[in-house]
From TrEMBL, chains A, B:
InterPro entries: Ald_DH/histidinol_DH (IPR016161), Ald_DH_C (IPR016163), Ald_DH_N (IPR016162), Aldehyde_DH_dom (IPR015590), G-glutamylP_reductase_CS (IPR020593), Glu-5-SA_DH (IPR012134), GPR_dom (IPR000965). One of its GO terms (cellular component) is cytoplasm. This is Gamma-glutamyl phosphate reductase. It catalyses: L-glutamate 5-semialdehyde + phosphate + NADP(+) = L-glutamyl 5-phosphate + NADPH + H(+). SUPFAM superfamilies: ALDH-like (SSF53720). Keywords: Amino-acid biosynthesis, Cytoplasm, NADP, Oxidoreductase, Proline biosynthesis. The lineage of its organism: Bacteria, Bacillati, Bacillota, Bacilli, Bacillales. HAMAP family: ProA (MF_00412). Belongs to the gamma-glutamyl phosphate reductase family. CDD domains: ALDH_F18-19_ProA-GPR (cd07079). The keyword Lipid metabolism does not apply. One of its GO terms (biological process) is L-proline biosynthetic process. Catalyzes the NADPH-dependent reduction of L-glutamate 5-phosphate into L-glutamate 5-semialdehyde and phosphate. The product spontaneously undergoes cyclization to form 1-pyrroline-5-carboxylate.
Length: 414, 414
């Protein structure tokens, strides 16, 4: 039997056992993993070093190497995150609703784990700990399919997790890593509906597209963020510039960073100069539409493709619009249903924006950078959903659960 | 442009307009459709007659013809269902949660429509009205892809719906029928992620499998029900027989009917005789395991395939088990995660069953036939989900919605 099938079967086989583990049993396991990561940090770092060497040989750039690298500090962060996770409420077993029917049937809807989660991700070994611990807390079995370029790190981390689980009441098979990272095996995995309840891709647009297009298993689509800041005519100058700069530059490589700034023509008339100066001070490359370039011909032209691009870099496209409706139409045409902000002091425009923009999170007078499970107060995050089914926006622990109806009768028939 | 693409674009174009229609505007449209169906009943029936003639020529059996047939009574039932739908609470706009963050951000999660729903179904013209009205009530645009064998009926019904919508404040494009029912066009539809937010297949196992395996759009999987009745050692004889007979025979062609009866050996020792007699009285064909046939050699043998089959007919497979754990293991191996019942007076066995059986709805001392949106008190049902994401079990109106986070700030940045 292939490694994939063997591990998938093992995962499936323990789902009902995992579903009834108590919060204390699961928390005990999380605490042990936290300690074990610290105890075995040297082993993890030395295995990680192997991946980094291979990465360098393969010409990874500094940012890819940085993503891949595990340091003592980063391992400490992981260990701390596990302890914070212990503190969070366990959603499993929560009664979501209970009612009685006229025929005397008593109905109850309770939260249960999803079952087997397939996590598909890139060369970020921190996701290995992150996904394992969130799945463990919610009583799910997880099969991790990471990148071949992080394979030594991932094997080491999963070994450490197993060392911890072996001392706990959670079976070690709750967390399994696919050591075979071939595309063929991934393609097989995406069709194993019999064993997997959900696939969660985490990574760039290419990875997510591959999973969405090739999976017959339900997918929780995460991530791509082509976010906009719309500055309305009545927006305060300082607030608007401050939010635009924050959304674009505070961490340009993430999905909730802004990619396009839309300006009401009235606001642009008075403040475009200052906004452009602030962006240039932060070394942002601006790509403007005709109206922007009518005022500032030195600015590079935004081509059609730019409006739909998640730059993930210090680049911003900029367009002047006549009114909030033109902004809404632009966002609904090019946005990725992630996070969209309006900066305005005009209540009716804010209401229009909230009503008509289709996205997971809409902001009034705040930065799009807040779309994040921790910033939302969820205490954890398995990703940010840009699809509409099951979960939308930052996904906390309840996202990793399904429900069950429990019906108690006294002999009722139809 | 193809019919599919043209209609998909039209549907997508009106989603934000539909999302802000008031409950009263939507209810007014539902009332008008209800009236229009009655007013144009002769037109619908005469168009339906064409489908029936073709069906007869093509050798449809009586049960298929019956599903296809629209009579004055059935049209009246549809019209009545629309009026009942008016009474139901509109989930759109409902505030699911609201909270504030330490930084002063005010968060709110509200229900919004899904957007564009693709309904894929078989030769049941009543689904045309049903799906259209549920989507309309929840502010969704729907594209209906019915069966070619119901095409005249479907065109007539959608014409009637359009006549009603033209008098209402809901755009007629909210409900569109694909007149091209070719497989090639369906295959294209299943990949139009840009336009469709969800596909809902309704029909037999084959149809559902086709959609699940070929769609890149999220699917709400419905329907297949291989349901079990487990009669525990302590079960009351009369209650157990009554429930087993009801679950098997009251309407054998539906997904929540039972397909297998599992018997505790103690109960079988005392009451097998009576159960078999009751089933035979109802003309049920029994297929037994070795133990059943050890007592009743005249009973047909259940082969491996029988345990996994949704008979949808007066056939039942029957197995004697040693204890509740053997019953649970059998159900988790062969069940379709739909509805499972335990008949028992032993609290700890019931608890074990509720904890360890993986299914959308679990019953104690009641028939599996209650898994139904109306029986659950939801007042409507778009199908019964046998998957774990988004919705599980009977799907009422809220299933046709997603959510949006609305965040209000005073200039917050990270």
């Amino acid at each position: 039997m292939s490694e994939l099938l063997e591990k998938a079967k093992k995962a499936k086989a323990i789902t009902s056992e995992l579903a009834v583990k108590t919060s204390e049993q699961k928390n005990d396991a999380l605490r042990r993993i936290s300690m074990q990561l610290l105890l075995e940090k040297d082993y993890i770092i030395s295995e990680n070093e192997k991946d980094i060497e291979v990465g360098k040989k393969n010409g990874f750039n500094e940012s890819l190497i940085d993503r891949l690298r595990l340091t003592e500090d980063r391992i400490k962060d992981m260990a701390e995150a596990l302890i914070l996770l212990v503190e969070l409420n366990d959603p499993v077993g929560e009664v979501l609703a209970s009612w009685a029917r006229p025929n005397g049937l008593k109905m109850k809807q309770i939260r249960v784990p999803l079952g087997v989660v397939g996590m598909v991700y890139e060369a970020r070994p921190n996701v290995t700990v992150d996904a394992s611990s969130l799945c463990l807390k919610t009583g799910n079995a997880v099969i991790l399919r990471g990148s071949s370029s992080a394979i030594h790190s991932n094997i080491a981390i999963v070994n450490v997790i197993h060392h911890a689980l072996e001392q706990s009441e959670i079976p070690a098979d709750a967390v399994q890593l696919l050591e075979d990272t071939s595309r063929e095996t991934a393609a097989q995995m995406f069709k194993l509906n019999e064993y997997f309840d959900v696939l969660i891709p985490r990574g760039g647009a290419g990875l997510i597209k591959t999973v969405v297009e090739n999976s017959t298993i339900p997918v929780l689509e995460t991530g791509v963020g082509n976010c906009h800041i719309y500055i309305d005519g009545s927006a305060s100058k300082d607030m608007a510039i401050n939010i635009a700069i924050n959304a674009k530059t505070q961490r340009p490589s993430v999905c909730n960073a802004a990619e396009t700034i839309l300006l009401h023509e009235e606001w642009a008339k008075n403040h475009l100069e200052d906004l452009i100066k602030a962006l240039l001070d932060k070394k942002v490359e601006i790509r403007g539409d005709e109206k922007v370039r009518g005022i500032h011909p030195e600015i590079k032209e935004a081509i059609e493709e730019d409006w739909g691009t998640e730059f993930l870099d210090l680049i911003v496209s900029m367009k002047i619009v006549e009114n909030v409706d033109e902004a809404i139409a632009h966002i609904n045409k090019y946005g990725s249903l992630h996070s969209e902000a309006i900066i305005s002091e005009t209540a009716e425009n804010v209401e229009r924006f909230f009503n008509y923009v289709d996205a997971a999170a809409l902001y009034h007078n705040a930065s799009t950078r807040f779309t994040d499970g921790f910033e939302f107060g969820f205490g954890a995050e398995i990703g940010i959903s840009t699809q509409k089914l099951h979960a939308r926006g930052p996904m906390g622990l309840p996202t990793l659960t399904s429900t069950k109806y429990i019906v108690t009768g006294t002999g009722q028939v139809r």
